[in-house]
Amino acid sequence: AALVGVAIIVILAWRIYTSPAYTDPANGYPTWVLGAIVGIGIVAALGVGGFILYRRDAAGAAVAVAGALTGIVAAIVSAPIAAYLFGGVTGSGVDVIVAALRQGGSDVYNASLGQGLFSDPIDKTITSFVVFIILSSLSPRLIARFPLGDRTVATSAA
After folding, report:
1. DSSP run (H or E) holding 1
2. What is the pLDDT of residue 127?
3. Cα–Cα–Cα angle for 11, 13, 18, rounded to 5 degrees
4. What is the dihedral of CA 88, 126, 7, 95, to 10 degrees?
């Protein structure tokens, strides 16, 4: 699970890492930037792995993949909207990432896309885990009230 988490983060950020505007900036990156990227990947992977081990259920891996894929789709959909309607500035805290990417030489669209590919998968994965934890902690009586809930309760009891 840890390797899958690191691989997902590297794949999501590959476009930014391989862009000449970001790999060779005018003043150079501080040495802690690469360490921070690796650290975020390790923490995310350990979080997913710990969740899977704690619950003794591989559903956590499916939740992590679903959250990451949802984040990628959200980034691809939101980048043109943020770039062309708002000029890349949406008034949230992640505008700092857009500003940094713009300062690195990227245009508005690629800066918005880079910010989305960095922050949206993390956000959507955390949200997916919160929803999964809430839904999995519901009582069987409550789950049975939903459409087809009786099938879910019957299969989990069997």
Report:
1. none
2. 92
3. 100
4. 20
Q: Which residue has the higher pLDDT, 89 or 19?
A: 89
- Distance of alpha carbon 40 from alpha carbon 112, whole angstroms: 20
Q: What is the dihedral of CA 80, 78, 51, 136, to 10 degrees?
A: -150
Whether the pLDDT of residue 21 is over 60: the answer is no
CA distance 120 to 71: 5
Higher pLDDT: 112 or 22? It is 112
Query: pTM for this one?
Result: 0.66
pLDDT band at 19 (very low <50, low <70, confident <90, very high): low
Mean pLDDT for 109-119 is 83
Q: In angstroms, how far is the first alpha carbon of the chain from the final one? A: 28
Predicted confidence at residue 20, as pLDDT, reads 60
d(CA 141, CA 146): 10
Burial of 74 (0-12, 13-18, 19+ CB in 10 A): middle
Whether 18 contacts 114, CB under 8 Å = no
CA quadruple 110, 113, 119, 120: dihedral, nearest 10? 180
Task: Supply 126's token pair.
Answer: 């955390």
